[in-house]
Write a structure and sequence with these properties.
With 350 residues, this protein is an alpha/beta fold. It has two domains: 224 residues, Alpha-Beta Complex (Hect, E3 ligase catalytic domain fold); 117 residues, 2-Layer Sandwich (Hect, E3 ligase catalytic fold), CATH 3.30.2410.10. The strands form three sheets. Strands 5-6-8-7-9 form a five-stranded mixed beta sheet. Strands 1-2 form a two-stranded antiparallel ribbon. A two-stranded antiparallel sheet has the order 3-4. The chain is elongated. The C terminus is likely disordered.
Length: 350
């Protein structure tokens, strides 16, 4: 395991026969490598993380059963990778549950966790407990609850007492707040060993003080981008266009290419929000904009014009680079771009 993840890391690509591929990693290949490793580690099918119905990720409560000997090592490793991602100002197209972010990045007493912190854990459970909190005493009694819950660990149901002899203590209007508090803390305490290891991994790379000014939502945006509409003007202002033809014997850009780019940005501005997100994901690998705007996107956004080509646009996500053919008209541009971003065609690793 690398002792210092703050240091520059260079990746050598190896082909199928084990030989080094040509090219030098200036940072783009490492971005691609880091993001792919993180995506693999966070994939719920691997058992380390689980996803809510709204696709927010949090530690899988069954991870210690799936990986009984080294689950904490896995979470420590993933924490270091997320720390490196933040340190390098990179984005990945994932979202963590707020309660998980709060416990992983902020100094927080788990005993203070209340009902709102499980909203991103289980929205239905949150709704049920909120109903219990607000309903009439008669409705509480009609629910016929006691201080025990059923848990499912890889298909095995188990009854757990939330307090001593909990299955013999009925929930009523007077003690329902205690029941809710014990329920929430039980859910979160199951994840504590995973979260502690994950947090230790992050702090191996990131000084906790660096993130003190950010809220849980903002920290989530530092990792996976901001849940907001894409500001096309901001994106345009922080995009560098390469390979624009120049007028003969002059350094001024050719009028045709300038008009083509104007039409490109008008087209992007008129796209529905979902299509803008697909375009951004196609180019950068993340469908959401950076927390601090596109001036903070790394690597910076670029467009390389490809003359004398009518193929689909392609993208080098490791460089945040769109390779855009110069089509004969705006209709063709719109059609080809739509095909590329909706079929995820044309991906290149450059």
């Amino acid at each position: 395991m690398l002792p210092n993840l703050r240091a520059f890391i260079r990746i050598n690509m190896v082909n199928w026969v084990g030989m080094d591929e040509a090219g030098i990693d200036g940072g783009g290949i490492f971005k691609e490598f880091l993001c792919e490793v993180i995506k693999t580690a966070l994939d719920p099918s691997r058992g380390l993380f689980a996803a809510t119905k709204d696709h927010f990720l949090y530690p899988n409560p069954s991870a210690s059963t799936i990986y009984p000997n080294d689950f904490q090592d896995h979470f420590y490793f993933v924490g270091r990778l997320i720390g490196k991602l933040i340190y390098e100002k990179l984005l990945i197209d994932v979202r963590f549950a707020d309660f998980f972010i709060v416990q992983s990045f902020k100094s927080f007493d788990t005993n203070l966790l209340d009902l709102e912190y499980i909203k991103t854990y289980d929205s239905q459970l949150h709704a049920n407990l909120k109903f219990l909190k607000d309903c009439s005493p008669e409705e509480v009694n009609s629910l016929d609850l006691d201080f025990s819950i059923l848990t499912d660990n890889l298909g095995v149901l188990q009854k757990i007492d939330l307090k001593k002899n909990g299955s013999e203590i009925k929930v009523n209007a007077e003690n329902r707040s205690e029941y809710i508090s014990l329920y929430v803390n039980y859910l979160i305490s199951k994840l504590e060993p995973m979260i502690c290891a994950f947090k230790a991994g992050i702090r191996n790379v990131i000084d906790p003080g660096w993130l003190r000014i950010f809220s849980a939502t903002e920290i989530g945006a530092l990792i996976g981008g901001l849940d907001a509409d894409i500001d096309v003007n901001d994106l345009k202002n922080h995009t560098k266009v390469h390979n624009i033809k120049c007028k003969n014997f002059a350094k001024k850009p050719a009028d045709d290419d300038l008009l083509y780019m104007d039409n490109f940005w008008l087209l992007i501005n008129d796209l529905p929000s979902a299509q803008k997100q697909l375009l951004l994901k196609f180019i950068t690998g993340c469908s959401r904009p950076p927390l601090m705007g596109f001036k903070a996107l790394y690597p910076p956004m670029g467009i390389q014009l490809i003359h004398d080509s009518d193929g689909l646009p392609t993208a080098a996500t490791c460089l945040s680079l769109l390779k855009l053919p110069v089509y004969k008209d705006t209709t063709t541009l719109a059609s080809k771009l739509n095909m590329a971003i909706n079929s995820n065609a044309g991906f290149e690793l450059s």
